[in-house]
Amino acid sequence: MLTQAPNVPPPIKRTYATKVIVKLEVKEVVKKLSDGVEYNFWTFGGDVPGSFIRIREGDQVEFHLNNHPTSKMPHNIDLHAVTGPGGGAASSFTAPGHSSQFSFKALNPGLYVYHCATAPVGMHVANGMYGLILVEPKEGLPPVNKEYYIMQGDFYTAGKFGEEGLQMFDQNKAVDERPTYVVFNGSVGSLVGDKAITANVGETVRLFIGNGGPNLVSSFHVIGEIFDNVYVEGGTVAAQHNVQTTMVPAGGSVIVDFKVEVPGTYILVDHSLFRAFNKGALGMLKVSGPENLIAYSGKEVDAVYLGRQAEAGSEAEKQVAALQAQMREAIKSDPKISGLTKEIQIAKGKGVFMQTCFVCHQVNGEGIPGQIPPLANSDYLMADKERSIRGVLSGQSGEMMVNGKKYNGVMIPLNYLPDEDVANVLTYVRNSFGNSGDGVKVEEVRRLRGETPAPAAASKFE
Ligand SMILES: [Cu+2]
Asked: What 3-state class would DSSP assign to 83?
């Protein structure tokens, strides 16, 4: 049984290990990131975070990863609960419209993160490709009244916080670890108001908390509560008691239990507080029941405390951004800097290739028969330099003939790559794998990018 956050499958009653079949579907979906803000999430199970998987220590898991036919990218899965190189990544690499299968034995109990590990890994994770798998210890976890699933993640959009419309992924902000949004369960407000998690006075609540990152470490705190038990870093020993704030590493987890004694609204935050009040990392636990005036006698959390998110973007800030953009342009057009020799371009381009292109076109440029055309000795590539630049900037689809064989796939636009990277990678492929040709200059890419209908929003400086 798979559930979507904040729900958790019920505790396992089984007293023996068995074979478990898990079928997880990867889907790329446009969904709400915040009010009026949409984002093309890449998901395990249609939602961020991915479906919660609950198995028992010793179970033999037959794992099926299905990549929906409408996906534009290949994906895979690295489960931190798996013992073995890559955690399943290599055996689960799955092209759109395909399905992969592999098996593993759940040797170690604990709460584990799973995530996509397809290059560029950071981007797949930044687009929401993470979730939790609980391997319950043989003896089970101590029973509680309510269990919930909460996972933090940081998002990087071309537009500022709250800027409406469909937002593109911003590679520069991601590299700088400068998230636009930090959220619980995939969107601002996912655990607020009538979507808050709930409990009754006297109940014990357990939170399975994960952090997908890709960059930030979370300082998880529930305002007005103290964690009675903390299973530090998602391990199986409640090694700490009476904890206020617990760290959740990127790609890590924690389990906390606490009894709720006083009714009211408890605010869940990443206690790096600008993330909570200005970037979205804020949720609510609503506890109902009779007042407990001995434990606490006061008014509920003040609405003003939660505040309206600050208005972003003062005039001065915009001016600085414009000047900085001008400065970068000036540096780029300096012939001393942009005039890299072909050799340097090839060496740099190889780096780009090994980060971005090889997942599909393969390390040796030979492609995948019937699915991904070869770049090695490619007549199509070498016939038209401008076409190949446009192909990288705007993507390519529809039928094409490469070395006498027909291909009909989709290559997504890689317009988040800066002009230099596009020039370098194409110089590399035009001079590798048996190809030899002239280089691609930054100016050529810049000119064609200007002509491309969809501007490179993702690489724009904000
Ligand atoms: Cu992926």
From this structure: coil
Q: What pTM was computed for the model? A: 0.67
Query: Which run of H or of E encompasses 386?
Result: helix 385-394
> What is the predicted pLDDT for the residue at 194?
84
φ/ψ of residue 375, rounded to 5: -100, -20
Q: What is the pLDDT of residues 162-179, one digit of tens each?
A: 888 899 999 999 999 999
Ligand 1 centroid distance, CA of 410 (Å): 15
Query: Looking at 173-281, which runs of residues are DSSP E strands?
Result: 181-184, 197-200, 204-213, 218-223, 227-231, 240-243, 245-248, 252-259, 264-270
Which two structure tokens, joined as six digits, stand for 118? 């397809």
- Rounded to whole angstroms, how far apart are CA atoms 247 and 266? 19
**Which residue, among 382, 397, 38, has the nearest Cα to 188 in the 3D structure?**
38
First-residue to last-residue Cα distance in the chain: 43
The answer to whether 42 touches 123, Cβ cutoff 8 Å, is no
CA of 167 to the centre of ligand 1 (A): 18
Q: What is the DSSP string of 302-368?
A: -HHHH-PPPPP--HHHHHHHHHHHHHHHHHHH-HHHH---HHHHHHHHHHHIIIIIHHHH-TTS--B
Rounded CA-CA distance 208/252 in Å is: 11
For ligand 1, the distance from its centroid to the CA atom of residue 334, given in whole angstroms, is 37
**What 8-state DSSP symbol labels residue 21?**
E
pLDDT at 310: 29
Beta bridge partners of 308: none
CA atoms within 13 A on the CB side of 440: 31
| Closest among 285, 168, 270 to 213, alpha carbons compared | 270
Q: What is the CA(137)–ligand 1 centre distance, in A?
A: 29
The mean per-residue pLDDT over the stretch 44-59 comes to 97
How far CA 137 is from CA of 39, 83, 234, in Å, comes to 37, 16, 12
Distance 127 CA to ligand 1 centre (A): 8
Q: Which amino acid is at 104?
A: F
Query: Tokens 């269990």 — which residue?
Result: 147
Tell me how far the alpha carbon of residue 281 lies from the centroid of ligand 1, in angstroms: 24
